[in-house]
TrEMBL record:
Source taxonomy: Bacteria, Pseudomonadati, Campylobacterota, Epsilonproteobacteria, Campylobacterales
EC number(s) recorded for this UniProt protein: 4.6.1.17
Transmembrane feature ranges: none
Active-site residues from the entry: D127
The keyword Coiled coil appears for this protein: no
This protein's name: Cyclic pyranopterin monophosphate synthase
Length: 156
């Protein structure tokens, strides 16, 4: 099996996508953060010292999507056409599930962008409530689905 990010001399390279056709590409990723009841209640009540946690996490997730090529060495800078975030309250966990959808018309996929957005959003939640609960656990960061491109569609 050939790795696409290595050249003939096994040196790192960014894949050349110039010969690929543009298609609409969408990726959805998700992840969870589990926390104490006290931290969960403070977020729901919007009663934290650092401000509105979930709104800030959504902004951070959007920024994470946009900055993916600055963080992941072989990712192409992309002209994104849309980013959408949803936060699901999980009172029985207690915690939250963050979904990030990234979309573009282009020559390469947006899976890494969606996954990075989820990761940055969840880390932001952690950062904003770590004074209440340092034992929070971020887990299950995963690709839910992708569409477009040569490899076709994927659904978890």
């Amino acid at each position: 099996m050939n790795l696409t990010h290595l050249d003939e001399q096994d040196r790192p390279k960014m894949v050349d996508v110039s010969g690929k056709g543009e298609t609409t590409r969408v990726a959805i990723a998700s992840g969870k953060i589990q926390m104490s009841q006290e931290a969960f209640d403070a977020i729901i009540a919007n009663n934290t010292k650092k401000g509105p946690v979930l709104q800030t996490a959504v902004i951070a997730a959007i920024m994470g999507v946009k900055k993916t090529s600055d963080l992941i060495p072989m990712c192409h800078p992309l002209l994104l056409s849309g980013i959408h975030c949803d936060v699901e309250e999980l009172p029985n966990l207690p915690g939250f599930k963050l979904y990030v959808t990234a979309k573009l018309n282009g020559q390469t996929g947006v899976e890494m962008e969606a996954l990075t957005g989820v990761s940055v959003g969840l880390l932001t939640i952690y950062d904003m409530v770590k004074a209440i609960d340092k034992s929070m656990v971020i887990s299950e960061v995963q690709l839910e689905s992708k569409s477009g491109g040569k490899s076709g569609d994927y659904k978890r």
